[in-house]
Amino acid sequence: MSIVVVGSLNMDLTVSVRERPRTGETVLASDVRYAGGGKGANQAIAAARLGAGVDMVGKVGDDPFGATLIRNLGADGVGTAGVKVEPGVSSGVAFITIDAAGENQIIVSPGANARLTPEDVRAHAELISGARVLLLQLEIPLATVQAAAELAHKHGVTVILDPAPAQPLPEELLRLVDFLTPNEHEAAGLSGQPITDLKSARLAAAKLLSRGPRHVLLKLGERGVIYASGNRFEHLPAFPVQAVDTTAAGDAFGAAFAVAWLEEGDIYRALTFANAVGALAVTRPGAQPSLPYRKEVEMFLAARQG
Ligand code: RIB
After folding, report:
1. Residue 58 forms beta bridges with which residues?
2. Percent of the chain scored above 90 by pLDDT?
C-alpha cells in the first residue's frame, strides 16, 4: 500500500442542460445519470487505475448508494477496510448539472461524509502511518482532515490537500501540508488575491506559500498549472482537448500527481503526467467513469510527446 485517501464518497446524479434555470424558472434536462463520485473516492479510484496501491478511509450510509459506492472502490482494487457504514444515515449525494461547454455546477448533500470523525481516522492510524502519501480534500469535517494530516505529518507521510470545496483554512492545517492543490477559486479565497491572469495567479500562489504549505500546485484548468515552491514559480500549460465534462478532473489531477511523484520523485514529470490525466478526464462524461487507466495515459503522452 502506498497511498491512503481520507475523504468523501458520493453518488453523483448528473443531468446535462442547455441553459441553467434562473430563480423560479424550470428547464428540461437530459436523462439523469448515476455514477460513483465524491472527491475522496474519485481520487482513490484515479490513483488505483494508474497503478498505485490505495486504501480509503471514509463513511457511507446504510442505503443502496452506500453499498454501490463501496463496491465501486473494490472493483478498482481500492482497500475498503477503512470505509464504515453509518446506520440510519444517507450516503453522500451530489446533484450535478453540465452545461453545453462541459462545465459543471455541483451541490453536495454530505450525508454520512459529515459523520466521519477524528476518532474514525485514528482507528485506522496504521493505514496512514504505513502509507507514503495521504490525499485529503474538504468534503468531510475539518477536524477530521486536521487529525489525518497530523497523523501523516508525525509519521513522515507526504500530505497532499485539495482544498475543495472552498472554505477558510487555518495555518495550523496548512503548515502540515506538503502539496496544496487549489483551483483558481480556492486559491483566490485562501490567499485573498483575485486571479484574472497568470501574473495574478502567481501572486496568489506566493501568498498561499506564505501561509504554510511546502509547495503549491495551482490548477488553472485549460491554462495548465502553476508550480510554486520557495522562490520558484513555473507554469506548465495544459494539453489542449475538447472538454465534454470537467467533473473530477481536479481529483484526477491530484491523484495522478501523487502516483507519479511517488514513482519518480520528479516534479515536472509528475505534473506532466497529472496534466495528461486531467486532460483525459475532461474528455469523458461523469466522475469515476471518466478516470483513465494507466495504459490510456501512456498512449496519450506518447502521442503528444513523440
Ligand atoms: O470533484 C468532483 C466531485 O465533487 C463529484 O464527484 C461530486 O461527488 C463532488 O464531490
Report:
1. 83
2. 97
